[in-house]
Amino acid sequence: MTSFDTGAFGESRERLAAIQAAARQATPGKTGMNGLSGAGGKPVKPVLSAWERWEMGTLDGKTPSSGASAARKAAERSNSVPATPPAPKIDLAELARIRKEARTNGEAEGRAAGLAEGRKVGHTEGLATGLAAASVHAERLRALAQSLPDALRRAEGELAEAVLALALDVARQVVHRTLKAEPEWVLPVVRDLLNTDPALRGEPRLLLHPDDVALVKNSLGSEIEAAGWQVRADDTIARGGCRVQSASGELDGSLQTRWKRVSSALRGEADGIDGDGGNDELQTL
Fold first, then answer.
1. Looking at residue 205, which CATH number applies to its domain?
2. Does 175 lie in the same domain as 119?
3. Cα distance between residue 65 and residue 189, in whole Å
4. Cβ of 256: how many Cβ atoms within 10 Å?
5. Residue 31, class by beta-carbon neighbours within 10 Å (0-12 exposed, 13-18 middle, 19+ buried)?
6. What is the C-alpha separation between 235 and 188, in angstroms, rounded?
7. Closest C-alpha to 255, from 166, 185, 167
8. Any residues with CB less than 8 A from the CB of 166 and at least 6 apart, and which?
9. What is the C-alpha to C-alpha distance for residues 43 and 35, in angstroms, rounded to an integer?
10. Bridge partners, 37 (sequence order)
11. How many angstroms separate the CA atoms of 143 and 150, rounded?
């Protein structure tokens, strides 16, 4: 390291001495700050300008050539300027693949989002429609439930009336056949009228069906004579019934009237006999 420094600085001194000698030859006898020699011919170190760059000599003692120096300076300038990065290469196939993948992903995401939104909207609309329909049905059921007691009462009334009508029809048929087979059923009716209190005044007349006159006279003749009644045949009276007429009133023991009373009692009618509808029906027996 020491030998290197000595040789380099020795060369610099020699170069400086050569420059000073050349300056003395060009301007002999001049002195001053800018001269190369001072008073008494004493050499003065030259002042380097701001633009002159000091260059170290080569190890072999030779001065570098101007071409090498220029090349070195050019290299230094090129190194000091930042290099422009090379333009990236564009792979068209890769770019197309990326675009296609992005489009596919976008379509898939959009489809999924659309399906989700559609399901949500459809669920909401379907729920609203279902609730509206359920509300309508619930209102109908509520109305039916409110009207159910009345409907049941009407149905019970209609059913009871139908059952009663059927029972009465069956009973009429049974009575009709019974009276044909057992005409003696008229005797208890006549006996009840004879025992009516108060007794009828005047000359009461007992009206019977012509087929029942002989039967009643044979069975109750003495009682009828003791009561002062007269027996008369009346074909308007059905078999099994009778009627008593007197100056003080009338007792109706006809089958038609008795049947109406039974029917009215079964139907719960408070006024008892109403009209002659039952009479017309029993005339067909």
1. 3.30.2320.30
2. yes
3. 174
4. 20
5. middle
6. 20
7. 185
8. none
9. 9
10. 43
11. 12
266, 164 Cβ separation under 8 angstroms: yes
Task: State the residue range of the domain holding 102.
Answer: 95-181
Domain count, the chain: 2
Q: What is the mean pLDDT of residues 72-98?
A: 70
Residue 255's pLDDT is 82
* 211 and 125 both lie in a single domain: no
pLDDT tens, position by position, 1-18: 444 444 555 566 677 777
Q: What is the pLDDT of residues 37-60, one digit of tens each?
A: 444 455 555 554 444 555 555 555
Last residue of a domain, one of 181, 213, 242: 181
- Exposure of 274 by Cβ count < 10 A (0-12 exposed, 13-18 middle, 19+ buried)? exposed
Of 43-52, 110-119, 226-235, highest mean pLDDT: 226-235
DSSP string, the chain: -HHHHHHHHHHHHHHHHHHHHHHHHHSTT--SSSSSB-GGG-B-PPPPPTTPPP-PPPTTSPPPPHHHHHHHHHHHHHHHSPPPPPPPPP-HHHHHHHHHHHHHHHHHHHHHHHHHHHHHHHHHHHHHHHHHHHHHHHHHHHHHHHHHHHHHHHHHHHHHHHHHHHHHHHHHHHHHHHHHH-GGGHHHHHHHHHT-SSPPPS--EEEE-HHHHHHHHHHHHHHHHHHT-EEEE-TTSPTT-EEEEETTEEEEE-HHHHHHHHHHHHHT-TT---SSHHHHHHTT-
Residue that is last in its domain, among 147, 181, 215: 181
Two structure tokens written together for 55: 């260059």
| Sequence-separated (6 or more) residues with CB below 8 Å from residue 244 | 193, 200, 204, 205, 206, 207, 229, 250, 251, 253
Q: 204 exposed, middle or buried (CB, 10 Å; 0-12, 13-18, 19+)?
A: buried
